[in-house]
Amino acid sequence: MIRILKTLNFTNRFFLIYSGIILAFAISFFLKWMFPIAQTLLVIALLISVLDTFILFSRKTIVEANRNHATMLSLGDKNKIFIQIQNKSEIKLSIKVIDELPEQLQIRDFAMFIILAKREIKKLEYEIFPTSRGNFQFGNINIFARTSGGLFYRKFSFDLKSEVAVFPSIIQMKKYELNAIKSSSHFVGLKKIRQIGHSYEFEQIKNYIPGDDNRSVNWKASGRCGELMVNQYEQQRLQQVYSIIDKSRSMKMPFNGLSLLDYAINTSLVISNIALQKYDKAGLLTFTDKLGSVIKADNRKSQLTNIIHALYNEKEHSLEANYELMYSGIRNLIKGRSLIFLYTNFESTYALERVLPILRKINKLHLLVVMFFENTELKELAEKDCITTMDIYSQTIARKQIMEKTVIQQELLKFGIQTIKSKPEELSINTINKYLELKARGMI
After folding, report:
1. Quick one: which of 130, 194, 310, 393 has the most CB atoms within 10 Å?
2. Of 175, 213, 176, 207, which is closest to residue 194 (Cα–Cα)?
3. Distance in angstroms (rounded) separating the CA atoms of residues 432 and 369
4. Residue 322 to residues 249, 288, 289, 386, 399: CA-CA distances in angstroms?
5. Is residue 225 part of a domain?
6. CATH code for the domain of 89
7. Residue 315, SS3?
8. How much of the chain is in helix, strand and coil states, percent to nearest 5?
9. What is the DSSP string of 137-194?
């Protein structure tokens, strides 16, 4: 009996029926003929309740549940979670499924409703969107089953506690891995770029195909063969590609639930994987007032795993970034000319002026690409219609901030420093395009 009471829950239908019966008894004080009707309704309701309870708590009423998800979840992506529900009973059941989600998601009203015929199995699917890295703890799966009578729920609780780590976006990494296509392709990423020139490693002589670069025609081979032949080159390999991430307070700004640091981390993982797919060496360095993760560029099979685990543990800091220390770390870590992607965020020309001499020094030794972010919310504010004086003031400030970003980009370009000014959500694809473009130009 105690077991039944612990798992017995009343439905809305139960309260409606018995509230109606109570109302009938109340009316019978004034209308005597209502009293026997109210008694009859009460007896019927009690019989249905007993029968419903007997069926629900019969040993033959069995429900089972199981949960499946990936071994690692991806930061900033929709991750699918699967639940399998099986009705082992000989009766149809209406099911309410409540999965105890990780507290980081802050979802308190999650529930799914299904109907299971006898002996039926159903697979449910839902998505979660993690906005922070770390360990996520799933709790029990609670199932509330009721019969067609619908007066009571029987609670089935399944101890399916599991812990899963949220890593930098594995989903994005695999998605953009398709962009590491053959060097002969003129289409990369999500947009078309011009492949200017070629790198310097000769591969073979092949027949001319319409669309081949006319400058690659081998006239001697064409004369011998009696048809046009072209030299085919392959992009240089084993070049060093470093992702350097600023973890200071300028990278704590949130966009769509993720911080700028999270976007930089996801992009660093994507570009590291693409570089390894293109047979280059990938490395990592993070910094604030002190150096963080330091991984020397390499192309070993374990390199991507090392980078994933290093990025997993990175956190934002509330301190200013020490660019002198970053420069010292680059001089000690990176030997030989390399491609360096610097993920940072300059909000004013004054912030750039303080570090510009250091960036110019780095650019003399390596090919430096500075990535900073467009403030999409400021752009929306700058384009919004003004109604009040305060709206005009806010829009003026927003436009000034947007113009300042453009000035920062022009200042970097003036000193030959490559730049990417990107919306946070487009950072990965813009970085891939830049990397493949620089390789195509033979600039690395």
Report:
1. 130
2. 213
3. 12
4. 12, 6, 5, 40, 29
5. no
6. 2.60.40.10
7. coil
8. 40, 30, 30
9. EE--EEEEEE-SS-SEEEEEEE---EEEEEES-HHHHHHHGGGS--TT-SEETTEE--
214 domain-assigned: no
Do both 124 and 151 map to the same domain? Answer: yes
Count of domains forming the chain: 3
Report H helices in 207-282: 219-225, 260-277
Answer with the residue of higher pLDDT: 401 or 81.
81
**Contacting residues for 342 by C-beta, under 8 A, at least 6 apart:** 244, 246, 359, 362, 368, 369, 370, 371
In this structure, are 299 and 405 located in the same domain?
yes
Q: Among positive and negative, which fits the CA dihedral 67, 68, 69, 70? A: positive
Task: Find the mean pLDDT for residues 81-101.
Answer: 93
Looking at the domain assignment, is residue 8 inside a domain?
Answer: yes
Residues 296, 323, single domain; the answer is: yes
* 231 close to 216: Cβ distance less than 8 angstroms: yes
Q: CA dist 15 to 10, 32, 322, Å?
A: 8, 24, 65
Chain position carrying tokens 């071994």: 71
CA–CA dist 444, 440 (Å, integer): 9
| C-alpha dihedral sign at 327, 329, 332, 336 | negative
Do 28 and 67 lie in one domain? The reply is no
For residue 426, what are its two tokens? Answer: 């487009």
pLDDT at res. 180? 58
Q: Could you tell me what percent of the chain has a pLDDT over 90?
A: 54
Model pTM score:
0.79
Q: Two tokens at 66?
A: 């199981």
Boundaries of domain holding 400: 171-178+236-441
pLDDT given for residue 340 in this prediction: 96
246 and 274 part of one domain: yes
Assign residue 286 a region (left: φ > 0; alpha: ψ between -120 and 50; beta: otherwise).
beta
Residues 341 and 433 both lie in one domain: yes
CA dihedral 384, 387, 391, 393 (to 10 degrees): 110
CA 420 to chain CA centroid, nearest Å: 21
- What is the DSSP code (8-state) at residue 386? P
